[in-house]
Amino acid sequence: MLTGLIQRSFEDNIDLNRSRNQSHIENLASEGARLVVLSELHDSPYFCQCEDVDNFRYATHLDDFIDFYSGVARDNNVVLVTSAFERRAPGLYHNTALVFDSDGSLAGKYRKMHIPDDPGFYEKFYFTPGDLGFEPIDTSIGRLGVLVCWDQWYPEAARIMSLHGAEMLIYPTAIGWNPDDPSDEKQRQRDAWITIQRAHAVANGLPVISVNRVGFEEDPSGHTSGIDFWGSSFVCGPQGEILHMCSETSPEEALVEIDTLRTENVRHWWPFLRDRRIDHYSDLTSRFKD
Questions:
Q1: Using one digit for the tens of pLDDT, what is the confidence trace for 71-130?
Q2: Annotated catalytic, 26?
Q3: Catalytic position from the list 86, 112, 123, 246
Q4: I need a labelling partner for 253 at 20 to 30 A (CA). Which of 1, 139, 243, 274 fits?
Q5: Active site residue 124
């Protein structure tokens, strides 16, 4: 299945970002993409670098968001994975991924479950943790296990999606370096990010798609040196094999062939799900064991 990845940077202009996203989707669809994946919070800058109530202006009730992206999916006959700052109610906001089927219908949504609160990534100020659980989304091309960014560090999330029948794992992402970090620390961070997601592919016998933004974004508060988003959007197969890796520094439209039939073969060779000792995993539901 031909899959399109859109790795790019974003402006402080929602309409302009949507127009550019639409253009990229059209390009990839014209080349045969059946699935297209955008990065996290792709309609705006990454506003979570600081805690500022004015940034809630980027939020959407979803109606306008759905109208726009459902039309893009329908007009280009693609399954489309998107990401929104959802205004659910006054004072209640989520980081929400929405998936549109190729006919433009809303196939489903996922609200980000793990919410970070780190220097430059103050997401707990903006987002309420998701309440929809780890449920895959059924589409015309298969069952998609959609998770978002910080979720990608948690093997439990990937496993539960897999146990619910996900046929691939998809991570819209916004992650990057502190420009002040030394180069060796930057490389360790990026390598860890790639490694953990490849491990999810191996442990669950599933392809993984991870789409990041790219380029430098200034911290509007001036309290930090901003974030240099490291790109590196990639697709790997069910044995963790890299099928495509985007640039660390440049925008990119990538078209990647994913062999969806390979998953079952790999699970025959490496039957990890068969050999799980589910009778001895109860400790996983504890915060910590003293």
A1: 999 999 999 999 999 999 999 999 999 999 999 999 999 999 999 999 999 999 999 999
A2: no
A3: 112
A4: 139
A5: no
